[in-house]
Amino acid sequence: MLADERSAPSDTAPLVELQGITVTFPGVKALDEVDFRLLPGEVHALLGENGAGKSTLIKALTGVHATDAGEIRLAGVPVSFHGPAQAQDAGISTVYQEVNLCTNLSVAENILLGREPRRFGAIDGRAMRARAAELLSRIGLHIDPGSALGSHPIAVQQLVAIARAVAVDARVLILDEPTSSLDAGEVAELFRIVRVLRDEGVAILFVSHFLDQVYEIADRLTVLRNGKVVGEYATAKVGRLELVRAMIGRDLTVLDEVERRSERRVPSEEPLLRAENLGRAGSIAPFDLELHPGEVVGVAGLLGSGRTELARLLFGADRADSGHVYFDGKILKLRGPRSAIAHGIAFTSEDRKAEGLVADLTVRDNLILAMQAARGWARQVPRRTADELVAKYVEALDIRPADADAVVGTLSGGNQQKVLLARWLVTRPKLLILDEPTRGIDVGAKAQIQKVVADLAAEGMAVVFISAELEEVVRVSDRVVVLRDRRKIAEVSGTEVTVDDVVALIAGEAEKVPS
Amino acid sequence: MTAPPLVAPPREKTRVPLTSRVPSRFLPVIATFVVFVLTFGAGSIRYEGFATGQVVANLFIDNAFLIVVAVGMTFVILTGGIDLSVGSVVALSTMIAAATLRAGWPAWLVILAVLATGALLGLGMGVMVHRFGVQPFIATLAGMFLARGLCFVISVESVSIKDGTFRDIALASIELPGEVAITYGVVIALIVVAVAAYVLHLTRFGRTVYAVGGSESSATLMGLRTGRVKVGVYVISGFCSALGGLLFSFYMLSGYSLHAVGLELDAIAAVVVGGTLLAGGVGYVVGSVVGVLVLGTVQTLISFEGTLSSWWTKIVIGVLLLAFIALQRLIVRRQPVK
């Protein structure tokens, strides 16, 4: 363990101290004798693969999970919370990955719900809006506190969540993957606010999968693996490679394997799918696109640039109002997901919880779903076939735990994504559309999924790969389609494509784009 | 989505265009009100004597109990739930009132007993929904059968109310200027509406009702007392149904097991026509009141017509419901696009 000179002088007493914390779930030790310290006025990153215990640690700290052993001290005093409300009262606020606010209420209400200023027992709307405006301006956000939260983009909602978190005079602010749905400019804005709060002496616990961001914002970091602390580091003193190694506990062989695919295919064959002037008003402007078997086509663009919309049109989830799609040389009328699936097109949604998996079913049931749909309801998939398939894919994709009867909702994000992927692979699609398959999952699982994509393409499948991480898109794809403002603006291919090229294209003439 | 909105210069309060905020939140209520004005206007053009104060007053007199029941229903629907038991609870209330009065209980005790029964039934259903995670539809369906069944236990026959106090309240009328008379039922209903609006908009309980309807898990993570609210709305609905039942017994001066059959559907219709989202989180009590008035006006129109059968009321209400649900879909779908 390294000492840190920048923000952790040895005489600073930790604000939060966890000692020997153990949390056990049926069959698993989610946290195993974890020690952790959070100092006032620092940004402390918590890193680790999915299932390493980051969420559990946060939940143990905020009283969502009970601890089986160990002690939590807040400013030196042992505490034990029974739920987030109590932790909040003690000055520990959490901003979750998914914005946990009510979009149907006003911004001011979302900030002050539960602590509204009252006059003669009635909520004082005027005072509430004034207080909210004050809190918003503290974090430099200038929006009308009376407006409905739902009328603002997700990024602003996230900042409102932070305003709510600091409204309680939080001494500890926990940010659980707050950046996963923000674009570069919005992240910068978030970080500006985080720095303001840090300078005010708030202790900030920051969980993120984006190493760039961790290096940008964190003063110190703690790495967890399999429920144990691997180490506590000063950010300035630890190299990326060392860090990633600490996180995944193995060398980066998997990552190396998907280093840029050297042999790029020249699409000589007939395209598998050809879209001509395909578009939908208000969704994406008409575009042309060719997808060849054995080719990975990346889709790059900022959040809201039309990435998902493009995928949904190709899958028939939204109906196009212009253009045609030719599939295998024949014109294809997509009347919805069912007909797309029937033609061998598969689509994994970016929102795997809401639009992908059935969280209450087991891994086996989820895997068989798409296959069953393809066979029709009358011909049940025999148990043995199912077991064989499940075993095969659990192994091929390294789904953990390797238990066909595990309920999907209990799996970590990365493993859920693998189950979703496996479900479509079972149906042997000709075209696989992956929308943000690596969002919110750890480095190791990311690399595995990228490798699977490469392997599938090598086997002759056409793959559309959508991701917010340009580096990933460029690395995985043979060809990159660039979108901006719901319009296809370019298509680049070849080994020489770099992230910078794509960024330049996205930025283009649009100076307003900050990234 | 680009950065500019984040760092937009502070807007002055006065410059926030009111019109841009009105549509999404108030549009359904305004639409309902417009429909009410149009139907009423159509009636007054077509029939002489329609556009009189007394016809308006009668709308309230005839529907006072429905207004009260719809207010309770609004609370439940705002949390994203549903209460199917209200019609049966109304019937049970008339039954208990009639039976206990016949047994010689004093009027105040009868009223107390009826209200307590309603609140207690609501509490039971609320606990089932919250503690045991039973679907609101199922929990209140059970409550509906239970209450209706209890009516028959008390008596299968209609029991008339002969108590002096009840008759006095029922038959008393309050003269308003312009030769318009209303009953005490109307006054009670309007008080209930005012109290409900106050609770929903100016108390933490009320705001939590909206928060639960918007996103229950978020509300819990925000540290709000969602459990209390989820149980509370059913207690309120049960209480309102019992109060509605009392108003109904003033109106009918009898208790009968088959009173108010299908009333729960009228109440739900009024709430939905009044612009409250069935998914919860959006809506106003005032909307529900206007919803009741729309239903009442349609009924009045059809009775003025004379030649039309009463089932035309149902057909018109059906069409209205469809139209309003379509309108809500449009509004909801428009919102996320920003």
TrEMBL record, chain B:
InterPro entries: ABC_transp_permease (IPR001851)
Transmembrane feature ranges: 26-47, 59-78, 108-130, 136-159, 180-200, 231-253, 265-295, 315-332
Keywords, in A-Z order: Cell membrane, Membrane, Sugar transport, Transmembrane, Transmembrane helix, Transport
Domain of life from the UniProt record: Bacteria
Principal subcellular localization: membrane
One Pfam family this sequence matches: BPD_transp_2
GO MF annotation: an example: transmembrane transporter activity
Record has Cell membrane as a keyword: yes
GO cellular component, as recorded: plasma membrane
Bilayer topology annotation: Multi-pass membrane protein
Protein localization: Cell membrane
Protein name stated in the entry: Simple sugar transport system permease protein
